[in-house]
Amino acid sequence: MQELVGLSEIAEIAGASNQTVSNWKKRYEDFPEPIAQIKAGEFYDKDHIVKWLKRKGKIMGAKIVAFINLKGGVAKTTTTVGTATVLAGTFGKKVLVIDLDPQTNCTTMLIGEEKWKELNNDKHTLYTLFKDALDEKNNFDIEKTLQKSVSNIRDVNNLDLLPSSLDMVDLQDRIATAPQGQFYANNPTEIIKRAVKNIKNDYDYILIDCPPNMGLITLNGLRIADGYVIPTIPDVLSTYGIPQIINRVNKFSDSIGEEIECLGIVATKVRMQSSLHNRTLNQLRMEKDAPMFKTVFYENNQMGEAAEYQPIGTLRQKWGYQGQYDRLEAFTIELMDKLEA
């Protein structure tokens, strides 16, 4: 349900005076438009205000990024997990990973298959959250579902996870039929938003691994995101859907009245000997569709082996000594810089 706030509430959220907020309204052209105007004054959508305050650096809050591509096998999950481990292990950030992909690869990379099976059997995954929305029940327990201090890397301690489930495959097409509840407050794109409302600001960064489609589960991730990243192999099949992703996200952004920034495309599994990869990289660097991250991830066996869950000491041991870790760190710095800007 939309929560409205007036100028005094905005001032309280920002730790500023009413006069300061009035000055922001006059000074900044992108200050959110009021939703309602009555004798008592103007009222604004609280979510719009909080996002604007975060973007302007007026308040602290989790920076939320979705990772998307319509094609599987482009190292989307590896990039998500790698970035999360570097944020937590190298930069000491408190990080939450939300695994929305029913393939559950992100989940098993972080907690292993045995722990995932245990959680899945106990219904402590995001499947239960989406199933509750369909059945109008309240079985989802975020405290039992939230996995704290995950990762098989000894040096990584500040990384939490909301795990996925293979069972979510059966729900993807049914979420649109979820009952909208009293006053039509249960929007099917806001299921995740409601679930993480009380925990999201416990984190510096939240990374979302989205399914390889633009369905309602992906839209749930985008609904809370400040921006999104498109990992892609520089070939025809992997890049073909990029304009469709950007167009669909822009339309969704317009419909909810909130900016969801395309942070950029990151090239993965690049083979420098491939003329196709080199041609496609050159096309992507022209930035006709979206900005391009400078960092490039090359095809490498150790990056693929990093998906295996086994105890390991350091980030370099996990991701590789031959430049792989350095590229993950460089990409993470680029991402942080974009979000800070």
Task: Provide the fold topology.
Elements: E1 4-5, H1 7-14, H2 18-27, E2 36-38, E3 41-45, H3 46-55, E4 63-67, H4 76-89, E5 95-99, H5 105-111, H6 113-121, H7 126-135, H8 142-145, E6 159-162, H9 191-196, E7 205-209, H10 216-224, E8 227-232, H11 236-239, H12 242-256, E9 261-270, H13 275-284, E10 292-298, H14 301-305, H15 315-319, H16 324-340
Helix pairs in contact: 1-2, 4-5, 4-16, 5-6
If helices are DSSP runs of H or I spanning 4 or more residues, what is the number of helices? 16
**Named CATH topology of the largest domain:** Rossmann fold
Largest sheet: 7 strands, parallel
> pLDDT below 50 for ≥5 consecutive residues: which ranges?
none
Spell out the key features of this protein.
2 domains; alpha/beta; globular; 341 residues; 3-stranded antiparallel sheet
